[in-house]
């Protein structure tokens, strides 16, 4: 048998070389050359291989293309309604955030009907057993395989035909045909590629765990994102107990959904009303805090936005945005200077979304403006009021989507007043709450901080 040919290929520009190089001569990027096995089967003019035959779209039967429920509603929603058979799902996240815990708990819930193969390269089978004991998982349908050799893994998958495979983690998987070390770009790519192919071939869903480095780059799961069907990120503040799972890519569902969990002593627990968690313990009667209602996928969520505006002693005052877009904050501050005459050039501005959530929709604009104004003027906002609205460059307040869902959530959480764009007022049908329509930020401020 001919020896497989190996090449180093730049992951940025595709430059090929027989030797590894630190810097790609093609695009001058550093550290982009990754080892790959070259398939010599492709020759120009070669006779086509017999493969699958085309099927008419109309005759394709999807009846058995059902999804498995993960046992966690929060996870099902993020996946778009459960696990699709034969799909490859990448679960990324910082070390220690709870990826292994989540997947083992999911395995525990699925094991009633399904045979699970949990391949671990990070922990010993005893360690998994210990974790299982802590989580109360003890099914005979969960098989643990401590293995790092990819070929041995694929062999086991083909032999034992499990209903679901978990690979924890891709950084430990080793492709013997490649000379590079496990965790390097070439290894990770090749291993993931073959795992994904096996998933498709046998219609077995595969969960692949990947660690992200602080830079999110080298051999992290980033390069795998285009190979898999779904990419989930599991995140959270290290020293806080809740965890958020969100999808950044999903061939079988929306990427807007998030799932919220809480890490407890006995494992992860679903949080069904995250609004309560997000606004719990918020201060009352102090300047610089406001509650907004933001939409996360199909679910509305109340979040607290805090702002601190304080005199700066720097020539270039600091601007810091956590959980919201920095440029969006700069724009809102500029609008406030121009339209409200609030002079913030000499002020440091810090804006923070409490609870580590990221808000990426403009419907939180009005809340941010009010929080900043509240801190700037050192006057508190009434605690029972929530703000919804997008702010335009002229200071106008623009309508947002799904207003009724948002108002409903605010009412459910005990808010008594909702300040919304005038343009949305017609659609707001919720009657159990005081609804005030506003058209621009000047008017809103006069109303909120009257007297
Ligand atoms: P783990 O799932 O090992 O993280 P990852 O696989 O993402 O690296 O999670 C480990 C952390 O979770 C560790 O800090 C301990 C904590 N933990 C709990 O708080 N409760 C539990 O029941 C378990 C199993 C872990
Ligand atoms: Mg782990």
Secondary-structure map:
Elements: E1 5-10, E2 16-17, E3 33-38, E4 67-68, H1 73-79, E5 83-84, E6 88-93, H2 99-110, E7 116-120, H3 125-135, E8 142-146, H4 150-160, E9 164-168, H5 185-202, E10 206-211, E11 230-235, E12 242-250, E13 258-264, E14 267-270, H6 274-279, E15 289-296, E16 299-311, E17 319-322, H7 326-340, E18 347-353, H8 365-377, E19 385-387, E20 390-391, E21 397-398, H9 403-412, E22 417-421, E23 434-438, H10 441-448
Parallel strand pairs: 6-10, 6-11, 7-8, 7-9, 9-10, 15-19, 17-18, 19-22, 22-23
Antiparallel strand pairs: 1-2, 1-3, 4-5, 11-12, 12-13, 13-14, 15-16, 16-18, 20-21
Helix pairs in contact: 4-5, 7-8
The structure holds thymidine-5'-diphosphate (TYD) and magnesium ion (MG).
Walk me through this protein's architecture.
There is one protein chain. The strands form five sheets. The chain has a nine-stranded mixed β-sheet. About 1% of the residues have low confidence. It is of the alpha/beta class and 451 residues long. The chain is globular and about 80 Å long. The chain has three domains: 34 residues, no CATH class; 206 residues, Rossmann fold (3-Layer(aba) Sandwich); 172 residues, Ribosomal Protein S5, domain 2 (2-Layer Sandwich), CATH 3.30.230.10. The termini are far apart. It is 25% helix and 27% strand. It binds thymidine-5'-diphosphate and magnesium ion (MG). The site of magnesium ion has 4 residues, from helix 2.
């Amino acid at each position: 048998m001919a020896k497989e040919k190996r090449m180093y290929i730049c992951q940025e520009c595709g430059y090929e070389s027989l030797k590894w190089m630190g810097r790609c001569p093609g695009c001058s990027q550093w550290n982009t050359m990754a080892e790959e096995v070259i398939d010599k089967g492709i020759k120009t003019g070669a006779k086509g291989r017999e493969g699958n035959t085309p099927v008419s779209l109309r005759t394709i039967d999807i009846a058995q293309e059902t999804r498995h429920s993960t046992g966690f509603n929060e996870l099902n929603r993020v996946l778009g309604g459960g696990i699709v058979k034969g799909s490859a799902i990448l679960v990324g996240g910082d070390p220690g955030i709870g990826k292994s815990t989540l997947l083992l708990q999911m395995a525990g819930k699925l094991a009633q009907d399904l045979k699970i193969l949990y391949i671990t390269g990070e922990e010993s089978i005893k360690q998994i057993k210990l974790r299982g004991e802590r989580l109360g998982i003890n099914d005979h349908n969960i098989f643990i395989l401590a293995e790092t050799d990819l070929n041995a893994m694929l062999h086991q998958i083909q032999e034992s035909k499990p209903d679901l495979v978990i690979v924890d983690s891709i950084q430990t998987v080793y492709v013997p045909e490649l000379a590079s070390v496990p965790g390097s770009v070439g290894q990770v790519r090749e291993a993931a590629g073959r795992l994904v192919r096996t998933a498709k071939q046998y219609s077995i869903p595969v969960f692949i765990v990947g660690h992200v480095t602080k830079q999110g780059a080298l051999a992290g799961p980033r390069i795998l994102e285009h190979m898999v069907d779904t990419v989930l990120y599991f995140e959270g503040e290290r020293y806080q107990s809740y965890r958020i799972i969100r999808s950044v890519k999903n061939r079988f569902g929306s990427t807007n959904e998030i799932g919220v969990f809480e890490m407890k002593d006995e494992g992860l627990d679903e949080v069904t009303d995250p609004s309560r968690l997000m606004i719990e313990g918020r201060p009352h009667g102090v300047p610089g805090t406001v509650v907004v209602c933001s939409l996360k996928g199909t679910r509305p969520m109340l979040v607290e936005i805090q702002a601190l505006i304080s005199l700066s002693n720097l020539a270039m005052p600091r601007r810091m945005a956590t959980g919201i877009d920095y440029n969006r904050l700069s724009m809102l501050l500029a609008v406030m200077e121009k339209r409200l005459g609030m002079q913030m050039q000499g002020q440091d501005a810090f804006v923070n979304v409490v609870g580590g959530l990221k808000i990426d929709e403009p419907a939180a604009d009005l809340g941010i403006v009010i929080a900043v104004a509240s801190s700037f003027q050192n006057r508190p906002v009434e605690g029972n009021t929530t703000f919804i609205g997008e702010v335009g460059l002229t200071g106008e307040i623009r309508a947002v989507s799904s207003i009724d869902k948002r108002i409903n959530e605010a009412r459910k959480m005990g808010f008594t007043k909702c300040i919304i764009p005038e343009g949305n007022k017609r659609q707001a049908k919720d009657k159990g709450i005081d609804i005030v329509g506003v058209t621009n930020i000047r008017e809103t401020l006069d109303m909120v901080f009257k007297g």
